[in-house]
Amino acid sequence: MPGRIDSLYGCGIDVPALTAKAIKKGLISQAEAEKLDKDSALALIFKSGFSTSPIITDISGRGMGLAIVREKVEKLGGTIRVESEKDLGTTFRITLPMSLATFRGVLVEVNEAMFVIPTSYVETTVRIKQSAIKTVEGRETVTLDGNVMSLAHLDQILDVKSAARERLLLKKTDTRQVFVNLVVLSAAGSRLALKVDRVVDELQVLVKTLGRQLSRVRNIAGATILGNGRLVPVVHVPDLVIAATMVQTRQKSGETEISASGRRILVAEDSITSRTLLKTILENAGFVVTTAVDGADAFSQARTGEFDLLVSDVDMPRMSGFELTARVRADKKLSDIPVVLVTALESREDRERGIDAGADAYIVKSSFDQSNLVEVINKLI
User: Fold this and answer.
1) Residue from 26, 28, 21, 27 nearest 61 by CA
2) In angstroms, rounded to a whole number, what is the distance separating the alpha carbons of residues 188 and 283?
3) What's the CA gap between 354 and 360, in Å, rounded?
4) In angstroms, rounded to a whole number, what is the distance separating the alpha carbons of residues 312 and 298?
5) Where do the domains of the chain lie, and which CATH numbers do they carry?
6) CB contact at 8 A, 142 and 182
7) If 0-12 CB within 10 Å is exposed, 13-18 middle and 19+ buried, where does residue 333 land?
8) Measured distance CA(100)–CA(355) in Å, rounded
9) Would you call 262 helix, strand, or coil by DSSP?
10) Given a cut of 90, is residue 37 above it in pLDDT?
11) Disulfide check for 33: which of 19, 96, 254, 367 has CB 3.0–4.6 Å away?
12) Which of 33-37, 120-124, 280-284 is most confident?
């Protein structure tokens, strides 16, 4: 019998506001948001980098807290779910196994390699015709029990290749009657049909960690030894679901990730020492940096140039950082530019002024860390 921890508190989660924030952050499209049921929408709060906080500070707004909680729970072989009613409260349900040493797993084969998928994540296994796989908006999908879900290939996610397998596929000319094996997974509120070559068996396995040298290998939770002595990796299903989404997105857009290189940043700082320091940090991170000596100079340059983000001090002559932020938000051309305030002012009132002005992040110089600044900027652009 698994253990369970429940916690009830708060005023509930505003689901429409939650999905609106996810759309704004680019995590989901408007069309995808309209198809989400309540449980799937609530599961968005566990996504890494997602936060409903109106501003990023040294203690909130980074979207890491709940993502870390979910990662730790899933690493123990457990699950976490959220239930919420607006104005009533929110319940987090954490379910953990009583024993962490053994679990039941589904043994699958792909391109002559074997993997174990924890049974707790497996809804069912099915065999369908190749012709039943349809492409919708550039993504492969299948319909099972009247529900359309994304299809991913385990060999593509794990980059498992076999020359013999590829030669065999090249010989096939008519795929209409070819059957494929699918493992339907459910993790973190998402469902995924995973294509494998063969579902071998379901068995009780003893999981072994990968040791300190390989403490966190993406998509792999550990390994087990079969009865015949064969060493088989145990897949980390939540990683697998995220990786499948990334593969599908790349296939759909045909694009690669945008690096920091070429991103233009405007830095407004009246202190030449601080201005030079910020410029050096950002250029070392690969950004193209333009500097301004105060708020008025920054606003003028922002109006005539093209920038992806503004970093500004607050206490400056002619125009303060608060005034600059408000002017940027009121300007039709500049209103969407992210603004990061880096300042010595650390009172609660000053932070609230930053939020009211429209800043996206508020970093206090007394706790300044250059990697923190770069992380926040990468998150915003």
Assistant:
1) 21
2) 38
3) 8
4) 9
5) 3-96 (3.30.565.10), 102-253 (2.40.50.180), 264-380 (3.40.50.2300)
6) yes
7) exposed
8) 45
9) coil
10) no
11) 19
12) 120-124
Q: Are strands 113-118 and 102-110 parallel, antiparallel or unpaired?
A: antiparallel
Report in angstroms the alpha-carbon separations of 109 from 169, 195, 232, 245, 248: 16, 10, 10, 21, 22
Q: What is the 3-state secondary structure (H, E, C) of 306-359?
A: CCCEEEECCCCCCCCHHHHHHHHHHCCCCCCCCEEEEECCCCHHHHHHHHHHCC
Per residue in 271-327, pLDDT tens? 888 888 888 888 877 888 888 888 888 898 888 888 889 998 888 888 888 899 888
Tokens of 264: 């233009």
Secondary structure (3-state) at 247:
helix
DSSP per position, 124-193: EEEEEEGGG-EEETTEEEEEETTEEEEEEEHHHHHT---HHHHHHHHH----TT-EEEEEEEEETTEEEE
Between CA 22 and CA 25 the distance in angstroms is 5
Percent above pLDDT 70 for the chain: 78
The encoded tokens of residue 282 equal 């950002």
Query: How far is 253 from 138, CA to CA, in rounded Å?
Result: 8
pTM, 2 dp: 0.46
Please give the Cα distance from 70 to 68 (Å, whole number).
Answer: 5
Distance CA 158, CA 220 (A): 9
Condensed to tens digits (0 to 9), the pLDDT of residues 131-161 reads 888 887 677 888 888 888 889 899 888 888 7
Distance, CA of 238 to CA of 147 (rounded, Å) = 21
Record the tokens describing residue 230, joined without a space.
């064969």
Task: State the Cα–Cα distance between residues 234 and 308, nearest whole angstrom.
Answer: 42
Helix (H, G, I), strand (E, B) or coil at 196: strand
Q: How far is CA 38 from the centre of its chain?
A: 19
As a whole number of Å, the CA-based R_g of the chain is 25
Amino acid identity of 230? R
